[in-house]
Amino acid sequence: MSDTASSLRTEGLSKSFGGVLAVDGATVELRDGKINGLIGPNGSGKTTFFNLITGMIKPDAGRVLYRGRDITRHSPHRIAHAGLGRTFQLCRIFPRLTVLENMLVAVRRTRLRELLAGLRDKGEVERARHWLRRMGIEHLEDAEARDLSYGQQKLLELAAVLMAEPELVLLDEPAGGVNPALIDRIVSLVRDLNAEGRTFLVVEHNMDMVMGMCDHVIVFDRGAPIAEGPPSAVREDPKVLEAYLGV
Amino acid sequence: MRIASRGLPLLVAALAIAYPFLVPNFYLVYAGALTVMYAAMATSWNLLGGFTGYVSLGHSAFFGLGAYGTGLLVVRAGVPWVVALLASALLVTVFAVVVGIAAVRVRGASFVIVSIALVSMMNLVVQGWRSLTGGSTGLQVPSPFPDLHRGQTHMVFFYLFLALLALALASWWYVSRSRFGAGLRAIREDEDKAESLGVPTAAYKVTAFALSALFVALAGGLYAVWFGSLDPIFVFSILIGSYMVLMSLLGGVRHLFGPLLGALIVAPAGEYFLIALGETQIHLTATGLVLVLVVLFMPDGILARLTRRRAGPSIPDETAEQRLQGVAQ
């Protein structure tokens, strides 16, 4: 395992909120080029773990390494530039910007010339349209994002994240609040994007989705991983059954 | 509608250029110059407030510093007024970068309080530093055009402020159609989300803050050589800062011409109330009432109300064409 290049690795990552240990010395290594799943009971620290990796909150202890580089305590935008993209648990888009503007917010590099370039810069608009087409929402590019349905907003959020060309995509509950037909669409999108070389880390409560889609599953309980492995193995693991069923 | 939206600004611009020759007396030229000055300042304020949603009530700090910087360079160092104006504005911009790094760390109401603290501190410093600034007795700045009579001076400054307004409008327009502008608007909508998409939010906010300060400082510098007399209590007042906010909110912060429209209403109204009601503070009450009505009935400003498109709340997942094809199959 240590021989395969790891895209993301955390070492002893810890964070507490006023005496409550949300993440407790989590040491996790993602499988590069795979769809990694992160599951666990409510309150087991999955979202906090996400926020620690992406720099939204700072850890009390531990390190986050991305492709061997220490990115602990880097600001979220630098972590994004390093190649990490994420979606949020409750879909977050810019409601009063148009769909196309939502796409053009993403910044890959801070180069003055690019920042001063017009919003209608041809190459970038084409790239944005390409992603919108893949999500199947290209006909909405001039609509204000708040006028989209929730499912469309979820697709827009993912499209905007992909606009920043991340190598590692973190999805926080992609199936939450979404109809079954759209879940299938998201699963097949993730599979395609993975086949193109992107690594995924997916937090999800929908077990069917996780077990059907992921190559490698990490199970969290009380802020630290208690089991990991292929879905079939994790499903049978007594520690996992105990954490979920409390037996 | 399209012709109106293109032609109207040109018509207004032509009217503005002809304005000093159309009005019957120099008082109206003076009132016009004041209005254009406020329009330029409100448009500059909107470079920060409109894009990022950071409401600064303390932008008069940059107005006052621009004014005192220009005045002091002319009076104490004997620098030509144009050089003094530009140097002072540049210094204020550098100062705004330093202040901005600290100020934009806090959001929402806390930022408003910080901005008020800023203008209060500047007021105290300028009042207290008597040996340099003349303290509360004020600073007298000689007129740059001693050969012109007062009315002609008003006319010169009317055009100078008009040029500044054009510069501020052009900057807002340029930013609004850049990716930098899209980033700033994203900060207004959801700052953490913008950061996660790779937008260096702190650097963006400081840049907008400083750019906004630059134009306000230029307005302050022009004001100093125009009025020739600086009173720290006036130039560093919350009132001037509030005017910029009120004008922008009234016209609409999401529109290029919103602050300008707001200024065209608020500034003449203020002057009118001043004449009609005398040197009382009642005109402030009237101004406050306007603000309350705007926030109640037109929270996005007049222009938003006028140009609102009926997008409709729901957009189908498929286009009508796709749906028809589905039916046909």
TrEMBL record, chain A:
GO terms for molecular function: ATP binding; ATP hydrolysis activity. GO terms for cellular component: plasma membrane. Keywords: ATP-binding, Nucleotide-binding, Transport. Signal peptide: none annotated. The keyword Kinase does not apply. Residues 8-247 form the ABC transporter domain. InterPro entries: AAA+_ATPase, ABC_AA/LPS_Transport, ABC_transporter-like_ATP-bd, ABC_transporter-like_CS, BCA_ABC_TP_C, P-loop_NTPase. It comes from the Bacteria. CDD domains: ABC_Mj1267_LivG_branched. Transmembrane segments: none annotated. Gene3D superfamilies: P-loop containing nucleotide triphosphate hydrolases. It holds the Pfam family BCA_ABC_TP_C. The keyword ATP-binding applies. This is ABC transporter ATP-binding protein. The lineage of its organism: Bacteria, Bacillati, Actinomycetota, Actinomycetes, Streptosporangiales.
